[in-house]
Each structure stands twice: as C-alpha cells, then as structure tokens.
Automatic annotation (TrEMBL):
Keywords: Membrane, Transmembrane, Transmembrane helix. The chain crosses the membrane at residues 25-44, 56-74, 80-101, 108-126, 138-157, 169-187, 199-217, 229-248, 254-271. The keyword Secreted does not apply. It holds the Pfam family EamA. Residues 1-124, 139-270 form the EamA domain. This is DMT family transporter. It comes from Candidatus Accumulibacter phosphatis. It comes from the Bacteria. InterPro entries: EamA_dom, EmrE-like. Signal peptide: none annotated.
Length: 286
C-alpha cells in the first residue's frame, strides 16, 4: 500500500512530461488508461469478470472517470499538493454519500468529520479579496471534483459488494477511456496523438504502472485494517509534496498547510469511525 501511495503521489510527473512534449492531458489519460484496460483484459482473462451491462458498472465507470481524469487535469493545471489536499476532502463526501446511498445515519463522529473537512477547505480556499472560501481556479474545481468522484466510487464499490474486484477495476479503466474519447470528440482538448516513439513508450509504461498500482492497492486493502490503510495512503500527500518541491519547485502558503492538516485529521477521524462501525457490525452478527 505504501508503494501504491508512492505511485499516486508522483504519477502527475510523467503526465506533465507528456504535456510539455505537446500531448494534451485528456489524450495522455485516455491512451494510458486504454493501455491499462488492454493489459487488464490479458491479466484477468481467467477471472470471473462481470461484463453484463448494469447501472452499477456504469456509475462505477463514471465515478472513476471523474476521479482519474479530474486528478490528472488538476495536477497539470495547478499546484500538486494543493490539488491533492482538496482531493482528500473525500471523507466529507463519503459521509454525505453514505447517508444518501447506503442509508447510514449521521452520528456525532460523522459530524466531526464534516466540520474538520469544511474548516480545512475554508482555510485553503479563502480568498481575502472576495471574503469567501471559494475555489480560485480550474485546478481547484477539478481537484474537488476528483475527490468527490473518488468518494462516490468508494461508496458505490461498497454498495456493489457482489461484483468481483476485477470487474470494478476494469470498469474504472473503461470509464476513463470512454469519458476521455467523448471529451475529445466534443472538442475539449487537443486530439493530436504523440509523434515520437519515446512518448508512446512512456504511455505504455504509465499503462503498466496503473495496472500494477491498482493490483497492489487492492492486495493491500484486502489484508490491512481500514484505519491503517487510510493512514498509509495519506503518505501520498508527503510523497507528492516532496516530489513537487524537488521537481516542480512548488510550495504552499501557511494557510494551505493549516487547511491540509485539518483535512488529514478528518481523514484519520473518518478511518477511526469506520473501524468502530465495523466492530459494532461484527458484534451484532455474532
């Protein structure tokens, strides 16, 4: 899981290399996830994949598209760590979506997660000239959308426990490819394909990394307690901060760090809440 956090913390860099070489972010995302999808077909060819069309797979694919496309485009257009911290507002959306889609009651712990997340977001998004905590640019909006989509994917994944993990991973890959293709057909972004063989090699490497990262994280999630998993995955912010500082010479303002600390606290609080909920569920079943 630490390896997965490292991958997601630095995966923005090869996409920036592709952007600097003239490859649009939507094109690079569509191609890399398309390669990951083909590799997934080969790896999972003997697995019990659920290919029958269903609303569950459709919503999972849409959520994955919003998460992955939003994350890549946000990190291409904004400060990496700021985008990632806004992305990790996911516990806020998870609590709200769990109430709507899973009919889970909002308790004091859930209210605490919401409060911490909102305080963190307000600190990061505060605009002194406007006097309002609002997203400052497209990257902020995309980071928020990616975090919401990530939370939606997780909640839907819990709701569709009957589906094999392999099917959910493949639906995620397919969702990015289809959404990216539709955006390009609609005239969003530049549809020019990479011209240099080295760029195609980089895209192929990205596709392989995406497959391995998903398999590694799923392997870890199946064997690590939920509260520990969240703590480990939060190291992604540290990896991203170090990489952004060393590679892109990026830094955050003090209020961004304050907001980030509150958002991380909300994530840890959410993990603890999930653990207590699971324990109570096991006690009832026993």
């Amino acid at each position: 899981m630490l390896g997965g956090a490292l991958v997601w913390g630095v995966i923005w860099y090869p996409y920036r290399l592709l952007r600097d070489a003239g490859v649009d972010g939507i094109v690079s995302s569509t191609l890399s996830y398309g390669i990951a999808f083909v590799l997934g077909l080969l790896i999972f060819r003997r697995s019990p994949l659920a290919w029958a069309p269903s609303w569950a797979l459709l919503w999972l694919a849409l959520a994955a598209a919003g998460c992955n496309l939003g994350y890549v485009l946000a990190t291409l257009n904004g400060e990496v760590v700021r985008v990632l911290l806004l992305f990790y507002l996911a516990p806020l959306w998870t609590v709200l979506l769990s109430r709507l889609l899973l009919d889970e009651r909002l308790n004091y712990a859930g209210a605490g997660v919401i409060a911490l997340s909102l305080l963190g977001a307000a600190s990061m998004l505060w605009q002194p000239q406007a006097g309002l905590p609002a997203p400052q640019d497209l990257a902020d909006w995309l980071g928020l959308m990616a975090g919401f989509s990530f939370a939606l994917f997780n909640v839907l994944s819990r709701r569709t426990g009957h589906l094999p993990i392999e099917s959910k991973v493949m639906a995620a890959f397919a969702g990015v490819v289809i959404a990216g293709a539709l955006l390009l057909l609609a005239g969003v972004g530049s549809p020019e394909l990479p011209s240099a063989p080295s760029l195609w090699l980089l895209l192929a490497a990205l596709g392989c990394v995406l497959v391995v990262a998903n398999l590694v994280v799923q392997f870890g999630l199946a064997r690590v307690a939920a509260n520990r998993a969240v703590v480990i995955m939060l190291t992604e912010i540290g990896f991203a901060a170090l990489a952004a500082w060393l590679i892109a010479d990026e830094s955050l303002a003090p209020r961004d760090w304050l907001g980030g600390a509150l958002i991380v606290a909300a994530s840890l609080f959410s993990a603890r809440m999930e653990e207590r909920t699971a324990v109570r569920r096991l006690d009832r079943e026993s």
